[in-house]
Design goal:
By secondary structure, this protein is an alpha/beta fold. The chain has 14 helices and 12 strands. Helix 1 crosses helix 14 and helix 5 crosses helix 6.
Length: about 325
């Protein structure tokens, strides 16, 4: 059975995990911990714990328990002092309180939900994401970066984490080294994908791995992060901001959303991510394969990746590698 490691954060990672779960039970999700907004940010500030939101979503994506338990884990309070807070976040916070570490707490929660695979934070250190914008402005905090980019009508020139020497766990390095498939994305380029690759142990383990590495590009651009970027430009920025030295395949959407959905995104200053002829030349020159198909799945009026279709295509490519071996 194919051994998969998926790295990312936000909604993107949890969506792709639901598809990967269909093709393998040997899955490791490595989740960013730079989030400082929303309910996760409140718990991070109040309790001094790692932000639980992205981890919670990944556990739910891999869960095999009754729907009522999953609904409870996702419940968000609507009134009172807990308004806006998520019950799952509070449950993780409580488990952290009775565990020796955040990683151990996640393992216990994962057992409760009988998840397929494992979920690990990319680091147990208190990470802060920084960006330098064109013009020299320094922005601290994951949630502040896209806001300041939009406000200042600027762009991100450089991004880094502090502490710069943050470490990951032995288990994460071990899982990466044993992987057959490493999946990066989909997700926010600067605030979900790149932060994981700024931890030297993580990126070095990926570079040394024999696994096939897939980068799944977003379907829509993200205001304040990837305005106007093509799929190939997303990939180029990963290389320019990190020490990653190899990606084997770029996974990009070529499907077209309906006019009303595209118009809705245009009103939010977003557009469909395209694959350009220049992108294709870049990929060919650098020996990177292109996996291009209609990967659109519309949920409640929003464009999402069709994780099931993507995962089956990734598996087909991995099986070709096995056959050649």
């Amino acid at each position: 059975m194919v051994n998969i490691v998926a790295l990312g954060g936000g909604t993107g990672l949890s969506i792709i995990l639901r598809g990967l779960k269909e093709i393998s039970s040997n899955i490791t999700a490595v989740v960013t911990v730079a989030d400082d907004g929303g309910g996760s940010g409140v718990l991070r500030e109040d309790l001094g714990m790692l932000p639980p939101g992205d981890v919670r979503n990944c556990i739910l994506a891999l869960a095999n328990k009754e729907p009522i338990l999953q609904d409870l884990f996702q419940y968000r309070f609507e009134e009172g002092r807990l308004k806006g807070q998520n019950f799952g976040n509070l449950m993780i916070a409580a488990m952290v309180g009775i565990s020796d570490s955040f990683e151990m707490a996640i393992r216990k929660i994962s057992d409760i939900f009988a998840i397929t695979g494992e979920v690990f934070p990319v680091s147990e250190e208190d990470l802060t994401l920084f960006a330098e914008l064109a013009g020299g402005t320094i922005v601290a905090g994951e949630s502040n970066i896209p806001y300041e980019v939009i406000k200042r009508k600027s762009k991100i020139e450089r991004i880094w984490i502090e502490p710069t020497d943050a470490r990951t766990s032995r288990q994460v390095v071990d899982r990466i080294k044993k992987a057959d498939m490493i999946v990066l994305g989909p997700g926010s380029l600067y605030t979900s994908i790149i932060p994981n690759l700024l931890i030297h142990q993580v990126v070095d383990a990926i570079n040394e791995s024999d696994a096939s590495i897939f980068y799944i590009s977003n379907i829509m651009t993200q205001p304040g992060e990837t305005d106007g970027l093509s799929a190939g430009e997303h990939l180029k920025l990963i290389f320019s901001h990190t020490r990653l030295n190899r990606v084997d395949y770029l996974v990009a959407n070529k499907g077209i959303a309906s006019d009303d959905i595209v118009s809705r995104y245009v009103n939010e200053s977003a557009e469909m991510v395209k694959i350009t002829d220049e992108d294709k030349r870049y990929l060919m020159e650098n020996g990177i394969g292109l996996i291009e198909d209609d990967f659109i799945d519309v949920k409640k009026g929003y464009v999402r990746h069709n994780a099931s279709v993507i995962s089956k295509e990734l598996l087909a490519y991995i099986e070709k590698v096995y056959d050649r071996g």
